[in-house]
């Protein structure tokens, strides 16, 4: 009859997946391999499987007849003598294996451990330490320990390993995708989800229970020092990437720097050039827990983040706008309209957008021919000559190899006859625009003419995500843009995906025996910001309109646009603010609007809070300063301080003019 310990060991072995490298290396050490390490240091965030791996290693050591000393940092006292007494066998019994779990709770012991205790080990002894933190750099840099210490950061399980764990736990096949989306490769989340599934209702859609969430928050996140730290975690859980500036803007916390540093040091948070982000399981757990625990708070946090992203879209440098658009849509990735068209995270996540070099023209033509045929490739050749700046390529980060390209065209009114005669799709788009809402002189239409990704041709992909984010960013900044068009070969599928996003024009074009559909929006009828708000929130109520029918968000955008166009007389004379009630009865609306804007900016100084805001607005837009940085230098202000005054000034000015729009001058 097998002992209970043997039965537990067998069960653990059967349920354990992954970590082959760690198991193999430890096995070599158990068998006396001279090249094997003496100390194994395993670290990673909560729930990543450190304790499970220690138990598995312990079972192997026990099976080899080794003496085990198993300690837990949570239950060790602060007296080093107590530790040495508990671990006495390590220095007195040859072949003893010392396991120390949860080492982050006794980190004070580390220097003593490697400098004074471990060198006294009995012959053949081994050490396995597991905790949330990496070892001290002084230890890893010590050449004496170079061949004796192996440091391994435990990463999430791969997709195959996570699937094998769920299969071993008898999770029903129809629920595995939902569990994997929630848990990622985090073993604790997978194990808890599997246990919860075993008692779930047959046929019901899987979702983490309150008990699972409570256990995961405690296991993955641990103790949170204060309510401010909790709010910072909630920002990081929802935001695509969190910066110190984002924390300060969304939370209005005095110690945003301290909160950011705390986030940065959490073991389940990664640092990237764009900011911080939590591992998948931690992110999904924090979001699900907040949504369940405080749904109103969850929505309020999401809305604050959305407003900050929209502000950034209005004010960010052009090279940052596309990334901010991506961040905004990521925040609302559970909205059905976005789920139909975007993927965010996939096997293609290692793609990046780049400019097209002339030496890659042949590759682009070859890809077009492969995906759409020779006639389409000839049209690509035409546009390479006419608008080469409209081409972008997408490369693999790992190798730099080009795997896709897109082409965005800008067609002024009237378009070049050569372009219309050459490309039937462009000709059809132009006819449609003229028949429905003609493009006036000074305006243009924009079109994503080609989206060629042979491996994932015109299905939702990271290429389409990145391309569409750029389109939306350009639409936010473009002046005189009338219609926008997307072109898809599988127009039936895309008509369903784009429902509520873009209109199906009904126009179908033939190129080389292949039919293409055109999907469109008229940016003159719906401001980009209003369209984005509609896109990210299907339940949003229509915004309040002024007497002219202008919604408040569109009005605010029109004020900002008028200021940005101040030094361009032609563009200012066509700005949207001229169509509001502000200058409805004026004899000279253009000049009167300029006078009104100057007076409204000057009036801000009547309130002490608005003095700096007025100076920032006047210097940025009326003084002739070529850039905001130059305006900041004229005022002798740090750029960040200037931007803060400028944002306040824009908010105050929009509020003042909106009051006038609603109620007139009296």
Automatic annotation (TrEMBL):
It comes from the Bacteria. InterPro entries: P-loop_NTPase. SUPFAM superfamilies: P-loop containing nucleoside triphosphate hydrolases (SSF52540). This is AAA ATPase-like protein.
């Amino acid at each position: 009859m097998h002992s209970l310990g043997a039965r537990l060991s067998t069960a653990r072995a059967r349920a354990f997946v992954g970590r082959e490298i760690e198991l193999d290396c430890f096995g070599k050490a158990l068998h006396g391999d001279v090249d094997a390490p003496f100390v194994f240091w395993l670290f990673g965030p909560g729930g990543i499987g450190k304790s499970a791996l220690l138990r598995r290693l312990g079972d192997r050591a026990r099976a080899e007849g080794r003496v085990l000393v198993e300690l837990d940092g949570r239950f060790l006292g602060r007296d080093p003598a107590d530790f040495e007494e508990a671990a006495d066998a390590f220095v007195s019994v040859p072949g003893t294996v010392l396991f120390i779990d949860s080492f982050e709770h006794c980190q004070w012991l580390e220097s003593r451990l490697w400098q004074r205790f471990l060198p006294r080990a009995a012959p053949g002894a081994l050490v396995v330490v597991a905790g949330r933190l990496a070892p001290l750099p002084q230890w890893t840099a010590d050449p004496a320990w170079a061949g004796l210490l192996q440091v391994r950061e435990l990463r999430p399980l791969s997709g195959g390993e996570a699937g094998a764990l769920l299969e071993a736990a008898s999770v029903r096949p129809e629920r595995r995708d939902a569990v994997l989306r929630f848990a990622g490769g985090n073993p604790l989340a997978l194990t808890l989800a599997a246990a919860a599934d075993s008692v779930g209702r047959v046929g019901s859609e899987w979702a983490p229970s309150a008990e699972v969430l409570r256990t995961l928050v405690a296991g993955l996140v641990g103790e949170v020092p204060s309510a401010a730290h909790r709010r910072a975690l909630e920002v990081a859980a929802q935001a695509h990437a969190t910066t110190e500036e984002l924390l300060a803007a969304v939370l209005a916390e005095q110690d945003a720097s301290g909160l950011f540093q705390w986030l940065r040091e959490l073991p389940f948070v990664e640092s990237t050039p764009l900011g911080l982000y939590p591992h998948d399981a931690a992110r999904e757990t924090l979001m699900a827990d907040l949504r369940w625990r405080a749904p109103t708070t969850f929505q309020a946090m999401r809305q604050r983040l959305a407003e900050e992203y929209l502000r950034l879209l209005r004010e960010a440098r052009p090279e940052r706008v596309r990334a901010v658009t991506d961040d905004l849509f990521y925040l609302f990735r559970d909205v059905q309209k976005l789920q139909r068209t975007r993927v965010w995270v996939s096997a293609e996540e290692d793609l990046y957008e780049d400019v097209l070099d002339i030496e890659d023209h042949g590759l682009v033509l070859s890809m077009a021919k492969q995906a759409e045929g020779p006639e389409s490739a000839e049209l690509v050749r035409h546009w390479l000559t006419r608008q080469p700046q409209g081409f972008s390529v997408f490369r693999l980060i790992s190798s730099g190899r080009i795997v896709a390209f897109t082409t965005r065209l800008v067609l002024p009114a009237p378009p070049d006859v050569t372009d219309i005669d050459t490309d039937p799709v462009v000709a059809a788009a132009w006819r449609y625009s003229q028949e429905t809402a003609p493009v006036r002189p000074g305006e243009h239409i924009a079109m994503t003419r080609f989206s060629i990704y042979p491996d994932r041709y015109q299905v939702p992909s990271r290429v389409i995500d990145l391309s569409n984010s750029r389109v939306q960013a350009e639409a936010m900044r473009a002046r005189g843009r009338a219609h926008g068009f997307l072109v898809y070969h599988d127009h039936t599928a895309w008509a369903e995906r784009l429902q509520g996003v873009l209109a199906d024009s009904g126009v179908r074009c033939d190129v080389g025996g292949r039919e293409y559909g055109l999907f469109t929006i008229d940016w003159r009828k719906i401001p980009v910001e209003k369209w984005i708000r509609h896109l990210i929130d299907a339940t949003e109520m229509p915004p309040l309109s002024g007497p002219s029918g202008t919604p408040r968000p569109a009005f605010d955008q029109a004020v900002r646009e008028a200021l940005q166009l101040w030094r361009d007389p032609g563009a200012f004379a066509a700005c949207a603010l001229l169509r509001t009630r502000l200058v409805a009865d004026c004899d000279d609306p253009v000049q009167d609007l300029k006078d009104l804007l100057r007076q409204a900016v000057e009036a801000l100084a009547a309130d002490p809070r608005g003095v700096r805001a007025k100076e920032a607005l006047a210097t940025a837009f009326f003084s002739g300063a070529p850039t905001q940085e130059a305006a900041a230098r004229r005022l002798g202000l740090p750029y960040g301080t200037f931007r803060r005054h400028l944002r306040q000034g824009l908010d105050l000015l929009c509020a003042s003019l909106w009051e006038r729009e609603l109620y007139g001058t009296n």
